[in-house]
Amino acid sequence: MEGMLPSDPPGSDDDGNGTNMWTGQKDKLALDPCVSGDTNENAHACTSLTAVHQVLEESTNNTVHAVDMGIVTRQDDPLKASEEDINQHKDEQELWGPNVQTSQDDYFDYVKQLSPNSRRIDKWSLLSHDEMIEVKERHAGYRIRFCKMLNKEFEDTMKDPAEYSRGELLKENYFLRYERDETLGWYFHPVHTWLAGLNDYQKLVLVNHDDSTEFLTRDDYHSCFNTYEVDEDYVKYCEELPKKIKWSKMDNTAFFQALKIATNFRHMTVGLAQFAYMEYVWDLREISRLKEWPYFLHEIWKLVAKQKMNFNDALKVVYEMDMFHSFKFAVEAELNGDKLFGLEYRFSMCAKDISGDVEEGKALDLITKAVYRVSSHSDHVWVCGEEDG
Prior knowledge:
The protein has 19 helices and 2 strands. It is an all-alpha fold. It has helices spanning 21-36, 40-56, 63-74, 78-95, 104-113, 129-150, 153-157, 166-171, 177-180, 209-212, 218-222, 228-244, 252-262, 270-290, 293-306, 311-321, 328-335, 343-350, 360-376; strands at residues 186-188, 204-206. 58% of the residues lie in helices and 2% in strands.
């Protein structure tokens, strides 16, 4: 079964179940901040996606409440809950883990259970003029309801959608101004709105703030025309992976178990499962290397702050120490004049202003806090080393 581990995320296909990067970004920026309380920007993205979905009136089960209910029922008997947790952990060890082997037949069985990668979407048929008027009126209703949800001031200036006549909606240009001034944080794609084969969710696009870096390759993602059900299963699947695949070595065993997990989600495809798994592996590497950043920057700081070296000379000395293999490629690039990885910028953000009079242990503590503070408020990836073998 050698060679079956995916090495690269699959590209987008033309089937509506695409696997582009922004699907993962919806997971990061839309779901996790609701739980972890990350930056305001991320929390806003989460709120926007949730509210937009409510406005579009897609009917889904609230799985978060179901999970909460499961937790609440366990609080009745702490001792019993503890025993259940222990038994559950034992059961999971038998089902998941690096020592649980999966055969090639199992692998193909998982593949058969998953939804096909190809799903035909009609991207050519257009709405008639009358149908388009109905769509515009419906979209106006979404904008009105969302504005009312977003800001109570709109309650005084807007009627309920059903109270507007066709003439009034036309006069208001269907409230498109709230899309164009980015009040809503989303918009209906002006070209795709005419496509008869798409539902409203598939025509929906989130505004890309911050010089188009908030959502990576957003346009590529949108072109996949994923349905809400596909996106929902993808996000839930991404939540499930770290609960069951917890060991550090990612190999065929881990990937096969990732496919097994995917079979519990009706709309998951092999391509989506593979992409989510590779993104999870990348995140693990990012977390691992994030822990090395404080020590790397601390060595540079000791040379700059205490021995009064300039940044490039200090970086060269640290490189010659041969202590930080994960940063080798980035340091070589920086020393050759390539600022792609922004090492000097990151040093200035986390360590430059720490005086040389500060005790080394205290300086390391300050740098560590700065690294985690900056990384949690940044869209930039803090991984710059070579890929693990």
